[in-house]
Amino acid sequence: MRPHHRTPSLGGLWMLLVPGIAVPLLTGACLSTAEGNVEGDGSSTVFPITEAVAEEFGKQFNVRVTVGISGTGGGFKKFCSGETDFNDASRPIKDEEKEACVAEGVDYVEFEVAYDGLSVVVNKENGFAGCLTVEELASIWRPEDPAGNWSDVRDEFPDRPLAGHLYGPGTDSGTFDYFTKAIVGEEGSSRPDYSASEDDNVTAQGVSGDRDALAYFGFAYYEGNAENVKLLSIDSGDGCVKPSRQTILDGTYAPLSRPLYVYVRKDALARREVADFMRFYLTNGAALAEEVGYVAAPDNVYADGLAKIPPRVDDNGTD
Predict the structure, then answer these.
(1) Comparing C-alpha atoms, which of 302, 289, 259, 282 is closest to residue 115?
(2) DSSP-based three-state secondary structure for 215
(3) In Å, what is the CA distance from 80 to each residue of 37, 132, 274?
(4) Domain ranges within the chain, ordered by starting residue
(5) Is residue 217 a contact partner of residue 168, using CB atoms and an 8 Å limit?
(6) Neighbours of 59 (CB within 10 A)
(7) Do 6-114+261-307 and 119-255 have matching folds?
């Protein structure tokens, strides 16, 4: 579902084309002779960015980057036990995850890589819902006495079922954690009777085939499925706002705008292939994030991230 807008150009460069942007990607020959394997897991939300970065990196380096989608929490379980080099995360690491890492002797570095706006969608045939307040959204997802029908959400909505027609991420997902905290008011607090999946494309497919459906997932997955689902506006008290690159970046799409992260083990970052992967990620991640449907972070965020990576020592022993 990911759009591709990359075209090769002359002189050992790839030109990455996004609206209003043309970014040259240096080839591996210009950067390093790194070899080896890099293993990652984690958030399905961050996955499209990391996948795009890994794809371009793999064309230019003799390094194999593999990425799973166990969800942010599921990924941190592997990361803190030392099974992976990095973890994609759609929320900051939790205190209990920090403790798990400490217990296993895993130290890490946090990198901010993009911004996202959690998108609430319904079926294309839904002609009555266009904007929901945070309170109405909470009435749908709260664990105690949740709305069973659309008419329970708002009197003028039709008496059509909601129970059995809800879709969303699993409980290991950082998107689940963030959404429940922002909307219901308590992280992890959610009605259990919904179709859960760590694959957001599966969620989108469920909504597209169910006229009474409602779901939430990352903005890139909405953009990848825009022809098949309908995007809702959210009113947090200042009027109805839809997620867009502008409203996500300026924070007016509230309370569902958020930063996205990649966590890397410090001992892994000491390996040339991992350091070069993250250097490539932060150098090219802004344009690649835009390409796959997310919002690039400000330039200083990537500069700060690059400063966290140990200087590369070339084959001749110099920096």
Answers:
(1) 259
(2) strand
(3) 19, 38, 17
(4) 6-114+261-307, 119-255
(5) yes
(6) 13
(7) yes
The share of the chain scoring above pLDDT 70, in percent, equals 87
> In Å, how far from its chain's centre is CA 161?
30
119-255 CATH fold: D-Maltodextrin-Binding Protein; domain 2 (3.40.190)
Query: In angstroms, rounded to a whole number, what is the distance separating the alpha carbons of residues 197 and 204?
Result: 10
Residue 234's DSSP bridge partners are 132, 241
Residue with tokens 């308590």: 186
Q: What is the pLDDT of residues 89-117, one digit of tens each?
A: 999 999 999 999 999 999 999 999 999 99
Query: Which positions ≥6 away from 183 have C-beta within 8 Å?
Result: 134, 137, 138, 141, 255, 256
In CATH, what is the architecture of 6-114+261-307? 3-Layer(aba) Sandwich (3.40)
Token pair 């344009």: residue: 287
Q: What tens digit of pLDDT does each residue of 263-308 get?
A: 999 999 999 999 999 999 999 999 999 999 899 999 999 999 999 9
| Residue pLDDT, tens place only, 60-95 | 999 999 999 999 999 999 999 999 999 999 999 999
**pTM flag (> 0.70):** yes
Q: What pLDDT, on the 0 to 100 scale, is given for residue 25?
A: 47
Angle at 118 between CA 7 and CA 200, to 5 degrees: 65
Residue 18 dihedral angles phi and psi, to the nearest 5° = -130, 165
Contacts of 127 (CB under 8 A, 6+ apart): none
Q: Which amino acid is at 104?
A: E
Helices 272-291, 299-307: inter-axial angle, 10-degree rounding: 170
What ranges in the chain are assigned the alpha helix state H? Answer: 28-31, 47-60, 72-80, 95-103, 134-141, 150-153, 174-179, 200-208, 219-224, 245-249, 266-269, 272-291, 299-307
